[in-house]
Amino acid sequence: MSTPIIAIVGRPNVGKSTLFNRLVESRQAIVEDMPGVTRDRQYGEADLFGRKCIVVDTGGIEPTTPESEAKLFKRMREQAEIAIDEADAIICVFDGPAGALPQDKDVVRMLKRTKKPVFWVVNKIDGPRHDPLVADFYELGVWPLFPISAQHAGGTLDLLEAVAESLPPESSEEDKDDAGIIRVAIVGRPNVGKSTLLNRLIGEERMIVSEVAGTTRDSIDTPYSRKLPDGSEAKYLLIDTAGVRRRKWVKTSVEKISVVRTFKAIDRAQVCLFLLDAETGVTEQDQRLAGLIAEKGRACVILLNKWDALGKKDNATFGEQIKKLQGELEFMKWAPILTISGLKGQRTHKIMDLVDKAYRAFTQRIPTGELNRVFEQILHVHQPPVVRARRLKMYYATQVAVMPPRFVVWCNDPDGVHFSYRRFLVNRFRTHWDFEGTPIKLHVRARTRRTPVPDELLEKAKEAELTAREQELLELDAIAPEDEIWDGQEDFEVAPEESSDRDDWRAPEASDDDWVSETWEDLGEEEE
Length: 528
Fold this sequence. Notes:
The chain is α/β, with parallel strands linked by helices. It has 4 domains: 5-166, Rossmann fold (3-Layer(aba) Sandwich); 182-362, P-loop containing nucleotide triphosphate hydrolases (Rossmann fold, 3-Layer(aba) Sandwich), CATH 3.40.50; 368-455, K homology (KH) domain (GMP Synthetase, Chain A, domain 3, 2-Layer Sandwich), CATH 3.30.300; 493-528, no CATH class. The protein has 14 helices and 17 strands. A 6-stranded mixed sheet has the order 2-3-1-4-5-6, sandwiched between helices. It has a 6-stranded mixed sheet with strand order 8-9-7-10-11-12, sandwiched between helices. The longest helix is centred in the C-terminal third of the chain and has 21 residues, at 455-475. The N and C termini lie far apart (111 Å).
């Protein structure tokens, strides 16, 4: 295996997520002084002395739980067991100040049945005054024990050295580059079916699914790949996010952090799958989330989930729902809409095709020459309006960026370009080059000498400028092209015919024989 996997397990609230953040060197997992914060498996990349590895944070293993939470903790335990099965090394974390508890004994018995290297860690040993607490854990029958402080990094170096030595040898194959992986974030309100959809796409129970809103708290990354019709393999990183409720309903600090993680997941993603509930329709919070996606410039596919739950559907239901949805999300008419059922798998096989199409539009670049030919045709069909008794002049356009596509148009009066004409240009660009699924940013600038000009137009301008300057020099003082231009370094004689129009010219004296002889010789006559 080229990239080894390290699983962090233990009972709830022993500091697993803190250690996970320490290993991946980021605050990727939510940390809070309460049990049950982490529920799903959380993956992160760590560097152990130059060796790349994947670290998995898991929910707490709790054998005995109240009936009200038994179902949820059972699924958390299943997630931890999956992480143990796929791991190459396991780090079992205990809580030093709490001492050895019966739940710790159950975890030890479960891990001893595996044939994988297990490292027993006593966490929250913040100094020499806590060293005696380590002795309590020898009654669990495990050795050696690694006393650490995940929060302050104390003792973690010895642990990481031991873990690195136990990992399988590196493969001779080079790790594949992550380039070409499409990052897809699944976004929506709580309980609209985000985790159910992710499980349906990857074909396994990757995420815990519950009817209780707010089950997912972290933004969970899941690698995914599929075969394309041409035989190639497409790779994705699916990001399941926590549902975002209205601000007044967000009470706990854990939910606040979850909302922030969702916003960061949108920043990190390239394509967003925006889930809506077909039963409730578009709410005010849905409009806010859609506006956030559009504002951040992310490609988007709108999924109308729970389509199977709608009653009394007929041939006109689909058209009516789509028309209503586009009216409520008018600023996202560019996003394709698909009706699905994540629970029953209805039309879910079409989702990734729409993701690929949106990503191609998101990264599409139009050559400057082709863009300006189409731009000229657009201006011919619909000329710019007249502003302050002067018609706007659009000179040229160019694409300056992708992800999302960003165009710049140069004109003589940017302030006079109305937003409706900007929208007209964007819609024409979108129609001509099929930018479905991605927003388009259009900027209008005034053309000045300092305005950057495309290379093609710059070369033409230089040639025209050189030609005009050369012609101007040739016409100056009626100098012929084959004549020698005086550089001001040598004296010369001025012929009267060539300088007779000068006010300061004075004819030479008649006694100047040299001048007379030279003049008559130039006229082709001999001196008498």
